[in-house]
Amino acid sequence: MLQISWPLLAAAGLATASRPAKRLDNGLALTPPMGWNSYSIMQSNAKALKELGLADLGYYYVTTDCGWTLPHRAKDGTLTWNETIFPDGLPALGDYIHSLDLGFGVYSDAGVQMCMTGLPNQTGSLYHEQTDADTFASWNADLLKYDNCYSSKARGYPNVDYEPLHSPRPRYKTMLEALQDTGRKVLYQICDWGVDFPSAWAPQLGNTWRITNDIVPEWRTIWRQINQLPPSASYAGPGHWPDLDMLEVGNDIFTEPEEQTHFTLWALAKSPLTIGCALKDTFNAVSKSSLAILSNKDVIAINQDSLGKAVNLMRRYTDAGVDVWAGPLSGDRTVVALVNWNNQSISGQLHLSDAGVQSAGHVKDIWNDKTSSNVVTTYTGDVAAHGTLLLVLADTTPAGTYRTDQCGHSNGDRVTYSNVYGMTDSGEYTLTINFGKSNEDEKTVHVSTSASSEPQKIRTSTNAVSARISLKAGSANSITLKTSANVDSINVSHPEGKFYASTAFSVSGTASHHKCTPGLCAPVGSKIANLTAHGSASVTVPTDKRAGSSRYIELTYINNDVSLDSAWTNGTNTRNITVAVNGNAPHRLEVPLSGRSSELFSPMKGWGDPATLGMLVGGFGGAGGRDEIVVSNAGGGDGVQPYGADFVGLRVV
Ligand SMILES: *[C@@H]1O[C@H](CO)[C@@H](O)[C@H](O)[C@H]1NC(C)=O
Ligand SMILES: *[C@@H]1O[C@H](CO)[C@@H](O)[C@H](O)[C@H]1NC(C)=O
Ligand SMILES: *[C@@H]1O[C@H](CO)[C@@H](O)[C@H](O)[C@H]1NC(C)=O
Ligand SMILES: *[C@@H]1O[C@H](CO)[C@@H](O)[C@H](O)[C@H]1NC(C)=O
Ligand SMILES: *[C@@H]1O[C@H](CO)[C@@H](O)[C@H](O)[C@H]1NC(C)=O
Ligand SMILES: *[C@@H]1O[C@H](CO)[C@@H](O)[C@H](O)[C@H]1NC(C)=O
Ligand SMILES: *[C@@H]1O[C@H](CO)[C@@H](O)[C@H](O)[C@H]1NC(C)=O
After folding, report:
1. Does residue 481 lie within any of the structural domains?
2. Does the structure show a pLDDT above 90 at 310?
């Protein structure tokens, strides 16, 4: 058994953002690859994959990771194995794995040596690509994981170089071409740890590509890695998958809820699911609870869903320590995960509208193994410390649409819709009342809402009619219609709000305005940088007296503080940004990465690529008809990152 200092395994950028280049089409990885990776004890664990039923669930590739070869090539120039570890040789191991009907994965490196430290050197594939591809093909390998250590020629081939002078891309392309030349179909896993934003180029070259530095056996790794997903999520699709690195489930470092959160996020991100624990051998056996997590059919089905779309971060309630990640599944279904980052249990309240849904005919609560029907607006459930509420929603209506049969309560000539969701306090919502298809009789409707005392009276002979209504932020609103006509459904849409560009803000302290490279920092073309505890941006806007005090603010921010070197310690891939209104306590949003272009070689190194996220901010309705909005990094400093995210603009809804 190898005792290894955590090796620099890894994973996998050049931005040609607008024109999508042709993606690799080798017919492989139509759903994210599943399997098992390790450094030794291959046979017994491959066998365990079968015996424990994991192979039947889709875990297929068994990959010999770093540590299998020698410091030098054989006399004929080929890579060969260490006979102490593999007495029968790699080809025989491949035959054994194939005899179990599993796929045989091999590992090499796009550098002069493989990553392993603390062992005799392991020679790499750089400058020997065709020889090594031919060797792997002759062993009937089905997968190649291709790492990035000792690859930086310009700096004398150090173990790692997170700021290489040249893109890793050409080295990965050379190996792809060598693999293609063999004629064997080999699933190709690019592992450059996310250097040079590979999502922009790796789908042309590989079936999977690492978007993060290595996973480390600490809970904080999950937060760091998932905060690197948002800019890469849209690159997932059949044949091409962003890789969050192998799973720590089963390594006895996480609690059960933590393992559930980890497995959920990896599965929903459409990352390859690569088991990284010893399943069953002379020394170890996976725990029942970890095996149950790795074997959860519903979660695996989400990962393997034919639509192949990754989830994204829809809403981050930073003050509450809760995230909502969601995305579409085949069959018009939606998957949504509420992640509790607090190290204590909470009663989680999931607003379905954060997943773009208003009501769901069927809900499967996966980790609680529970189903419900006709869920409207919110789903509530206890979520353990660091745990996740994971739901699959089917038979849904889009956010804002309330079907009377699912959501309405009738009483004589009144129908009431309760739990109507408002994202903001506003008197500017549009209510649309949909009568039966061809109902063109003269009708009268009295509309009242919980937020306004005066009912509105509407007369119409059309089959749909609109009214302006007030709602409060949250799900405690109700709408009552008094009418003799049948109402099929109502739709509630929030106002568009008003966008304030960063150019309208004045800066103080460390903060300053910056013009961006043309085309970047959309939609403004400039940003405010260096927001700190001592540097802010402020604007004064007219108060909307009807609105009330809590308004939804959609921030357009930029963060490309990519955690590579800092991945081993305190890197998070996040930045804070705070918004305070009329001198009230600031609200904080800790934003994930937004950069979608190379952190090394693109014109603004990814610091010109914005994203948006929203939060509810109280304190509006200022005296004198004016509201002052201050954007900053309040609380930054003192051991945490002093610089906030850069600021492009904000929309007040
Ligand atoms: C082969 O592997 C063994 C066991 O890890 C190690 O002790 C030995 O140094 C390796 N041999 C060579 C030549 O790398
Ligand atoms: C192993 O690699 C290191 C770093 O490249 C080098 O200094 C050392 O001489 C190598 N050792 C052997 C035995 O090749
Ligand atoms: C979470 O809380 C538990 C129990 O108090 C503690 O043992 C554990 O170290 C905490 N985890 C983290 C990551 O802080
Ligand atoms: C309103 O809701 C109905 C029922 O879900 C839907 O068919 C319709 O497209 C919606 N209309 C608008 C304007 O959103
Ligand atoms: C922010 O401030 C730092 C430190 O003063 C400076 O090096 C950097 O250039 C500034 N960034 C921008 C975008 O102005
Ligand atoms: C993170 O760790 C590095 C290296 O240990 C240290 O220099 C830095 O101050 C730390 N940063 C934060 C934000 O804690
Ligand atoms: C964001 O702010 C919180 C609270 O002060 C802090 O714990 C966290 O480390 C900050 N994150 C960054 C990246 O500075």
Report:
1. yes
2. yes
